[in-house]
Write a structure and sequence with these properties.
This protein has a domain of about 300 residues. Helices cover about 65% and strands about 0% of the residues. It has 19 helices and no strands. Helix 8 packs parallel to helix 19. The radius of gyration is 22 Å and the shape is globular. The C terminus is likely disordered.
């Protein structure tokens, strides 16, 4: 007896999803126990109210920035504006501190008032009519979406615990508290690796005076808003499996742990994906002028959260540009310009903020380089890298699942380069770029980057930056297997036949 193809596909995808959800549930339990062991923060109503007021103000601004009327007034359009306005507020504080030498809370109400005034103009920008949707209306009560929402609510429970993950204590949260103590960016010198860009810590600093949430509410809400954007992208390429793709995103360990640990990987993931999404937007997310401005903001955020995420961001953007042949697409160049300005603003920062990087890309002059040692180090790199991709409980099921559906759907040809393939190539290229950078530093004998500990931690956290793009492609392949023919998927603007 031969199983029909759709049934076999559902069995395979269901098995992979059950395994991933099982791993995610186990990891959520582990993280919850760690949080409970760390204790609970005191509940201070005034502090919580302040953080809530800031988040509500940004949410209201995002609504105010929606078009006056038309199809552009959607939940996903609001979510994109919420993310961009949150980063805009952090960038405003960063620019003010870099210029004047001090961080002033008064900048927040001034910036919000200016953004509200600007919104009165932006919301009247003409919004192109998106193409008619080729998929049914979203099923907001789908069990997979409800389960994904439950995993996001799990992230909210960690707001009552103190910062108890190592890098948050030593770098990101440490800086936020020291910014509040010093009233300036010079607080970076009281924490580990002061050469890292400070934007994410500036965002945490916005609520550092709250003894309960300690600035973590806004970043957590941004993760939820990103879920709406990812669902929108999934529905463009895989309408039937879109709810399951959102679930996979929220149960993946590096996404879930990155969110509750308040490391910088997930914020880079959000900013980078928003920039790419705006570049291939069909008009549903923002008017063209706003998309260009948003790309600048997202690109600057990528550069000022983690500079070591810039090479892979550049590679992903280059892949999008080459595959679509959109050489003059201003949204792609705007993201590149934003990243360049952000990078240079911190590289050329005032002398009072200069410090040597913790992991400088220099070699140890006292350690002799030999080909045998380099070959051994490369073997160590490949061992650690494959462990992160194929054996790690956060990526392992996804990596094998991606391979399975890719091989299975290999003969299901498409005409034009679809959006999912474009995103998958961009994500895979970013992953390979990360591996190449580690390979260069490892081969040349970098004293820190060639260690197995750094490979296992740093490399895995780098992969999360473009994990959504890879996941988007994998879900699209699954949808293609379920369809009688190739999935109807509108390509990005400017796409040409391959």
């Amino acid at each position: 007896m031969t199983l029909p193809r759709p049934r076999a596909v559902w069995i395979a995808l269901g098995t992979l999803t059950a395994a991933q959800v099982g791993i995610g549930t186990w990891r959520a339990g582990v993280m919850l126990r760690e949080g409970l062991a760390a204790g609970e923060q005191p509940f201070v109503l005034a502090g919580v109210a302040g953080e809530l007021a800031l988040s509500v103000a940004i949410a209201a601004l995002a609504w105010w920035w929606l078009p006056v009327s038309g199809r552009g007034r959607s939940l996903v359009a609001w979510a994109v504006r919420f993310v961009l306005l949150a980063w805009t507020l952090a960038l405003a504080h960063y620019a003010f501190a870099l210029t004047t030498g001090s961080l002033r809370p008064i900048v927040t109400p001034i910036a919000i008032a200016l953004l509200a005034a600007l919104g009165a103009w932006v919301r009247r920008w003409s919004q192109p009519t998106p193409p008619a949707a080729a998929c049914p209306a979203p099923d907001t009560g789908h069990p997979a979406l409800l389960l994904a929402a439950a995993f996001w609510v799990f992230q909210l429970t960690h707001l009552v615990f103190p910062y108890h993950f190592t890098d948050a204590q030593d770098i990101w949260a440490c800086r936020a508290f020291k910014f509040a103590e010093h009233g300036a960016l010079t607080g970076v010198f009281d924490c580990l690796d002061p050469a890292r860009p400070p934007l994410y810590s500036v965002m945490l600093w916005l609520g550092a005076g709250d003894p309960t949430f300690q600035g973590r509410l806004l970043p957590t809400l941004m993760v939820g808003a990103f879920g709406f954007l990812f669902y929108h992208l999934l529905r463009r390429v895989a309408p039937r499996l879109a709810p399951w793709g959102v679930l996979w995103l929220f149960v993946t360990d590096h996404v879930m742990k990155g969110a509750v640990s308040f490391y910088a990987g997930v914020p880079v993931m959000i900013a980078a994906t928003v920039a790419i999404a705006l570049a291939v937007d069909d008009g549903a997310l923002a008017p063209r002028r706003l998309a260009i401005i948003g790309a600048v903001i997202a690109g600057a955020a990528v550069a000022l959260i983690r500079r070591d995420g810039l090479p892979e961001f550049a590679v992903a953007g280059a892949v999008v540009m080459m595959r679509t042949r959109a050489w003059r697409e201003p949204r792609l160049w705007a993201a590149a310009a934003g990243a360049a300005v952000g990078y240079l603003s911190w590289t050329l920062r005032p002398a009072v903020l200069h410090a040597p990087p913790l992991f400088a890309p220099t070699l140890d002059p006292q350690a002799p380089w030999t080909l045998a040692a380099a070959a051994h180090a490369m073997g160590r790199l490949l061992y650690g890298a494959q462990g992160q991709v194929f054996s790690h409980y956060g990526y392992g099921v996804f990596a094998w699942g991606w391979i399975v559906v890719a091989v299975w759907a290999a003969r299901r040809a498409t005409g034009n380069v679809p959006l999912a393939t474009l995103m998958g190539l961009a994500g895979l290229a970013a992953w390979l770029a990360t591996l190449a950078l580690y390979a260069i530093l490892t081969f040349t004998g970098h004293p820190q980057m060639s260690t197995l500990f750094i490979i296992r931690t740093g490399f895995g956290r780098h992969l999360v930056h473009f994990y959504p793009l890879c996941l988007l492609h994998a879900v699209s392949l699954g949808e293609r297997l379920l369809s009688a023919g190739p999935t109807a998927s509108p390509g990005p603007p400017g796409a040409h036949p391959s």
